[in-house]
Design goal:
- This is DUF4136 domain-containing protein.
- By secondary structure, the protein is an alpha+beta fold.
- The chain has one domain: Double Stranded RNA Binding Domain (2-Layer Sandwich), CATH 3.30.160.
- It is 26% helix and 37% strand.
- The strands form 3 sheets. It has a 6-stranded mixed beta sheet with strand order 1-10-9-4-2-3. Strands 5-8 form a two-stranded antiparallel sheet. A two-stranded antiparallel sheet has the order 6-7.
- α2 runs parallel beside α3.
Length: 197
């Protein structure tokens, strides 16, 4: 039977660093957190037309284009149409910021077996004390807000917010953005809350 020697300390550090980096990156692909709010006294059944009074800016122009198209598609599904004389004004905003995260790892202690005695070759059992590693990583955190106002009275009607880590890949950005907008409009138009007599 062939017994391969265990990894020496520098090689073990590299293996652990690669594994932890892979797990960290896998954990970054999350669905945005979504929140909505609305005026319970508004009858949304009265509204059918809208316009973008302010389009969301501050991010990639292509992603902005996709974001607007995704919102337009959701409103079309609900029977809303764009108009030059709208009932509702949409105001979109995008805010991004660079954040930093410190990740600390503690590897060890490690125990050796046959042919491994701590940090050197030999027979019997031994312990390797392990080591600590801290990595600082920067990432982009984004918040997308849509506000709806009555176009005539400027009364605020509805707000949707999606926030989360912005993936590096444009494909992943689009996927996360679409997931956020899907959830944002899942309960739209909201049903007015009945007032107690």
């Amino acid at each position: 039977m062939l017994i391969l020697p265990p990894l020496r300390e520098p090689a073990m550090k590299r293996v652990f660093s690669i594994l932890c980096a892979a797990l960290l990156l896998a954990g970054c692909a999350t669905t945005p957190a979504v929140f909505t709010d609305f005026d319970p006294g508004v009858n949304f059944g009265e509204y059918r037309t809208y316009r973008w009074a302010e389009k969301p800016e501050g991010f990639s122009p292509l992603q902005q284009q996709r974001m607007i198209a995704a919102v337009d598609a959701k409103l079309r599904e609900r029977g809303w149409t764009q108009s030059t004389t709208p009932q509702v004004d949409l105001v979109g905003r995008i805010v991004t910021e660079t954040r930093y995260r410190m990740d600390s790892y503690n590897y060890g202690p490690m125990w050796g077996g046959w042919g491994w005695g701590g940090c050197c070759w030999g027979s019997g059992w031994g312990a390797w004390g392990g080591y600590n590693s801290t990595t600082m990583r920067s990432y982009t955190y984004g918040t997308f807000v849509i506000d709806m106002f009555d176009a005539q009275t400027r009364r605020p009607l509805w707000r949707g917010i999606a926030m989360g880590t912005v993936p590096d890949s444009p494909i992943d950005q689009t996927t996360a953005m679409q997931a956020g907008i899907d959830r944002m409009f899942a309960q739209f138009p909201p049903v007015a809350i009945a007032q107690a007599p």
